[in-house]
Amino acid sequence: MRFICSLLSLPLDMIPESLERFNFIPNENYTKLMKAKELYDPCEELFREVFVGSNQFLPPELRKGWILNGLIKLGLNRATDSKSFIRVAEEIENLSKMPTPPENLRERAKIVVRHFYYYATELNLSSEAWEKLSKIKFVPSKPVNPPFLETAYSKIPELYDFDSLCLPKYRNICWTQCPIYDDDVLPDSNICRLFPEMNEIETPIVINHLYAIIRNIVRADLSGWKDAKMSELLRTVIFQIYKHLNEVPKQELKSYLKIKLKADPKIFLNGEDPFDPYNWVSGNQLILNIDDDIDSGNRAVCGYLAICKRLLHICEAQEMKSPCMNIRVPDEYSQRDKIAKSFARFLDEKPNLVTNKSPQQNYERNGMQKFHDIFFNVHGEIIGSNRYVLAASANYFERMFTAGTMESNPWKPVYVNIDDIKPESFRIMLKWLYGRRLEDALSEIKMSQATDEISFYLEIYIDLLNACEKYDLQELKRLIEHKIVKSDLIRAQNVLEVKKWAEKYNAMQLFSYCKDYKKENLALLVRHRCADLLDVDEDELSELLDVDENELSEALDDYEDEIDNLESSEEDIWDCKIDTEFEKYSSW
């Protein structure tokens, strides 16, 4: 020891560097001679915590003055740098592999990880050093809770490397493929900025996790997941996986997913019950933007899955496309402004004196009804209004009330029978003429629970188009066309019928939109609408889709001609047949 102390006390430039290679320094218990770089100064807290009981510390005689400086030159681990920290992490991993690891190993590991988080900037790891450190198993994990535990990658608390671990926020999309960080060693935002990969999850992990769920839970019919609450949780987890994959860059997702899909393409849960095999489909069985299944091989995408459009397209889902078309609508059109201008014009006119006495009304009118002078009998419902306001609102009514007919008599109430417009629609039209916004007038009509929203609004809008054509309300007509298109009410099950109504009521913007919709989605419309009409089975229908597009268009035109033929039938038969067709092919 005297010789070693004398040697190490020499001026630093006189200590040969070749001594680094020799085992000549005793450990703390004098049981072994070691290289200087294999020994640690116990004054450093991290070394003291990790290497306790390892006989890798300096003996007390060598921990002072010039001797210590000489040892530092030969590689003694006195302060923590990137190299010594990696050796500390490796020591934790080696201890974990012992037949009987120290009881406090997890606590030691937590100290090491926290030290890394706190001094990460000072350690200044090179990319090579980080690559090495990220693969050392010294980071504590925690097992997931039931019901995830049965299929978890890690079922007991163990030590893993940074590359393998995932943050708890990713648990639902990775628990079968990755261990999860222990809560005591979660990386904070500063660490995640220094090492971004710690805050990320690799796409193959998520895809493999989805397949593991399908294989080990769904197809294995795992009982722990089958009650209503657990089934709902499983459905939520699967949706979170789809949502994550939907955000992955296309090329990154496609390259790996394509390989997996070849072996097992049915990865989409298109229904409520994950344990019903019918609900699991491949991407090419799904069609976006239709409301009902065409057949088992052509399914409508369910609501929660529809928002993952990008993922569905990558997996070859089809889509019923909406044509790109700008519907002209009056700019900042105000019916109230029109009424105000008309009122002013009417006030400037000099009235004609009428001397005859007003006749008695044939029924009693109460409240504000006594000021009404025109009454519409709409399918048996009496709706009162005012000729002055109607004339100010629409040219049709102005002509009607100033043409010298019986409707022009100001002393006698006018009664008009209407049997081709429904009372609700007629009230909406009158409210709009009075200056009310169309949306506000519509909101006052109650929709029954048995009626779906598309059918409810479309039926009213078509009825209003009839009224617009009848009373020459072009501004309202353009507004309704705009509403039908922008509210996405045109669907596969109604586009042909709406096209006919649009043509009948001269709603030419809507008519053009329906034509473009038909052209954009020709093959799907034939499959959806013409199977029964053409009297073909599913195989024959699939062959039909392989024919020339012109022939396909002619097939769809045949369907429209069938509806036209119904209109040429006798009046009493026509009503019955057209109702039957609408019941069969329409949602309203």
Quickly list its features.
13 strands; disordered C terminus; 588 residues; Potassium Channel Kv1.1, Chain A; three-stranded parallel β-sheet; mainly alpha; three-stranded antiparallel β-sheet
Task: Characterize this entry briefly.
The protein is mainly alpha-helical and 588 residues long.
Please tell me about this protein's structure.
- This protein has 588 residues and is mainly alpha-helical.
- It has three domains: 1-100 and 117-133, no CATH class; 139-319, no CATH class; 335-529, Potassium Channel Kv1.1, Chain A, CATH 3.30.710.
- Helix content is 48%, strand content 6%.
- It is built from 26 helices and 13 strands.
- Strands 4-3-5 form a three-stranded antiparallel beta sheet, covered by helices on one side. Strands 9-8-10 form a three-stranded parallel beta sheet. Strands 12-11-13 form a three-stranded mixed beta sheet.
- Helix 8 (203-218) packs antiparallel against helix 9 (228-247), helix 13 (335-348) packs across helix 14 (387-393) and helix 16 (423-433) crosses helix 18 (453-471).
- The radius of gyration is 41 Å and the shape is elongated.
